[in-house]
Amino acid sequence: MLEKTDFRTAQREAFEADIIEGLSRTPQKTLPCRWLYDDRGSELFEQITALPEYYPTRTETAILREQAGEIAAFCGPRTVLVEYGAGAGVKTEILLGALENPALYLPIDIAGDFLATSAARIERRFPYIEIRPVVADFTDEFDLPDDLPKLTPRVAFFPGSTIGNLDRDEAVAFLRRVRAQVGEAGKAVIGVDLKKDLARLLPAYDDAAGVTAAFNLNLLTRINAELGGDFAEDGFAHEARWSEATSAVEMHMVSLRAQKAEVAGRSFSFAEGETIHTESSRKYSTSSFAELAEEAGWSVAHVWSDPDGLFAVFGLAGTSD
Ligand code: AVI
Predict the structure, then answer these.
(1) What's the total number of domains in the chain?
(2) Which residues contact 84 (CB under 8 A, 6 or more apart)?
(3) Measured from the CB, is residue 278 less than 6 Å from ligand 1?
(4) How far is the CA of 153 from the centre of ligand 1 (A)?
């Protein structure tokens, strides 16, 4: 197992490699969205989830609350709940509180400190549930512990429409891996943001208070602080735009003038109006998500949605069920 300092060094190296590679790309400079989440970025994301324009968190929470009984019945008794990402807080508590006699809760997250804090919170709230936190990058290959209870069904929980931040191939690969990890009898409960009117969608990624802008531009602050960059932080503006080709809201940082920036000893030029693409948030229809899930070996057993059809929670089961 990696020591904390080794892990930090490995993270820093991966960060530098991704930033150099992404800023070298032509014609579109692009940075992987996972680097948006340093401490400040995570704090800003937390604030985003409470914004009036950002409907996904509230809507999904309401669906889980209202359909908790049905979702728990779908999961079945004595389940091992495997959560991909440990940041769902209240959503996890709703599901764990509704499950009949859960056998084990297994949150998986790359951020060990964050994982420990959220596991401790769940432990206080559900002292009767055994918790086994796993430090791993769930977008990558990793193994679940090999001593999990054998005869109890496993249920994968992936709320928040985080699946929307993966491109199509990554999403299929992720769902396939989850399928293998929960096994033949396993199930999955996945939160998915639905495609909708742009008048509703775009403000959710470009709010009036400027929190999403701060979240996006914080990446430049992070590059400056951690990689010795010299980005002029007032030289870029946040932009949210719709891409029909990928059915995604994209976040970009737009260069406000012709300028240069140095990162880790390398110089990068930006034309006025040129953008750095920092995140795609894909939006699905119930049928386009079902198609994706089927490609990964799942079939859709249930779709729980809100009255306005903004968000959907999918109950997936093996194709043989
Ligand atoms: C974490 N993820 C599902 C969020 C989303 O909606 O794609 C991240 C986010 N980016 C801007 N606002 C929220």
Answers:
(1) 2
(2) 108, 138, 156, 157, 158, 162, 178
(3) no
(4) 30
Residue 49 maps to a domain: no
pTM to 2 decimal places: 0.95
Q: What is the pLDDT of residue 5?
A: 76
Whole domain around residue 109: which residue ranges?
55-196+283-318
The residue type of 105 is: Y
Angstrom distance (rounded) from CA 113 to CA 126? 20
Helices (H) and strands (E) in the chain, counts: 10, 13
176/236 same-domain check: no
- Which residue out of 33, 34, 45 has the highest number of ligand 1 atoms within 8 Å of its CB and is therefore the one to mutate? 45
Answer whether residue 183 shows pLDDT above 80: yes
Measured over all CA atoms, what is the biggest interatomic distance in the chain, rounded to whole angstroms?
62
**Residue 158 shares a structural domain with residue 59:** yes
Residue 39 CB contacts under 8 Å (≥ 6 apart), including other chains = none
- List Cβ neighbours of 169 (8 Å cut-off, separation of 6 or more): none
